[in-house]
Design brief:
By secondary structure, the protein is of the alpha+beta class. Among the domains are: 4-80 and 160-211, 2-Layer Sandwich (Alpha-Beta Plaits); 228-312, no CATH class. 28% of the residues lie in helices and 18% in strands. The protein has 9 helices and 13 strands. It has helices at 18-27, 90-94, 121-125, 147-150, 157-161, 172-188, 229-240, 244-262, 292-302, and strands at residues 4-9, 57-64, 74-81, 100-102, 109-111, 132-134, 139-141, 167-171, 195-197, 207-211, 266-268, 275-277, 283-285. Strand 12 and strand 13 form a beta hairpin. The radius of gyration is 20 Å and the shape is globular. The structure holds iron/sulfur cluster (3 copies). The site of one iron/sulfur cluster (SF4) has 13 residues, from helix 1. The chain crosses the membrane at residues 239-261. [4Fe-4S] cluster 3 binds at residues 83, 86, 91, 126. InterPro entries: 4Fe4S_Fe-S-bd, 4Fe4S_Fe_S_CS, FDH_Electron_Transfer_Unit, Formate_DH_Fe-S_su. This is 4Fe-4S ferredoxin.
Length: 312
């Protein structure tokens, strides 16, 4: 099987969210009751972000309407927020349990939650902040590219439901060619910032996007980079293989680096569950109730125990 990709064309998306619903239906994911309560996002984006029960959201990015664009002063630049299925896939490289695995044939990165130990290194390593905890089970969940459907000759569930044809699925090369043709068309019609996203980012993504108003307007990450913790994890892997005591050391060192990488000067908002970089105001971790202490406690709880019950 050749490399596959999902194509998202923002210029055709009507933000009906049919794709979000199809994803939940096919993957048997519940509505995230509780996550939206008392949270007013200020937009039609609902839920506010991906979470363990929601693998895909359509983002409503506000922009100032240009002349002739809308009869209102504000316009939307719709975006697709989900796993981008990186060729380099740092999440899979750091996962100590082997829960995240890149399928070399399609390029999609799947997740086996029975192998997830809940350490969330993948969340720290992902430049798009995609993997999130799954409900009360403390397992990470994310888009799998519907590899179960793809291997059986079907398109991903989200693609199959999109009425305006904003989502397509096929060979990656073909999706890239279609995206370039569409960008050419948009530019010819005055959308100067229109661009293809995903062709080269992170070694090449398996979600290719046509961004009508440019990368930033659609809420995508400009020039995504692999976290330095990925390099350390490669060093720690042989050490963690030596024994459980070393595993604790390895996990501790990796956590410290992950925290250092992401958490320079952070504040945790108990109400929203967001972790905010105080210096930049950026939300570095969205509200899934996982502050640093919770993560440390969770790590400790999930480490192998001695027969007597204490942690090694
Ligand atoms: S189903 Fe298609 S048109 Fe509707 S929100 Fe999803 S991508 Fe956009
Ligand atoms: S977008 Fe994030 S979760 Fe998806 S493959 Fe890339 S690093 Fe992994
Ligand atoms: S590819 Fe499958 S798992 Fe991924 S967003 Fe689409 S429906 Fe959900």
């Amino acid at each position: 099987m050749s490399e596959k990709a999902i194509l998202f064309d923002s210029s055709k998306c009507t933000a009906c969210k049919g794709c979000q619903i199809a994803c939940k239906c096919w993957n048997g994911l519940p509505s995230p009751t509780g996550l939206n309560e008392n949270v007013f996002s200020g937009t039609l984006q609902n839920p506010p972000d991906v979470n363990g029960d929601t693998r895909l959201i359509i983002t409503f990015n506000e922009m100032e309407a240009e002349e002739g664009m809308s009869n209102k002063s504000i316009a939307w630049a719709f975006g697709r927020r989900s796993c981008q299925h990186c060729s380099d896939a740092p999440c899979a490289q750091v996962c100590p349990g082997g829960a995240l695995v890149k399928d070399e044939a399609t390029g999609f990165v799947s997740v086996d939650d029975s192998k997830c130990i809940g350490c969330q290194y993948c969340s720290s390593a992902c430049p798009f902040d995609v993997p999130h905890y799954y409900g009360a089970q403390s397992k990470v969940n994310k888009c799998t590219g519907c590899i179960d459907r793809v291997e059986n000759g079907m398109a991903p569930a989200c693609v199959s439901t999109c009425q305006p044809g904003a989502l397509q699925f096929g060979d990656r090369d073909e999706m890239i060619a279609i995206a370039h043709k569409r960008v050419e068309f948009l530019k010819a019609h005055g959308y100067e910032k229109a661009t293809v996203y995903g062709e080269n980012e992170m070694g090449g993504l398996h979600v290719i996007q046509v961004l009508k108003y440019g990368v930033e307007a659609h809420g995508q990450v400009e020039d995504p980079k692999v976290s330095p913790m990925v390099g350390l994890q490669q060093i720690m892997k042989p050490i963690t293989a030596v024994g459980t005591g070393a595993t604790v050391l390895g996990l501790g060192a990796m956590f410290a680096l992950a925290a250092g990488y992401r958490h320079k000067n952070l504040a945790y908002n108990e109400k929203t569950g967001d972790t905010i970089d105080v210096d930049t105001g950026e939300v570095v971790k969205h509200g899934d109730a996982q502050d640093e202490l919770t993560v440390v406690e969770h790590l400790t709880e999930n480490l192998p125990k001695k027969k007597g019950g204490s942690h090694e």
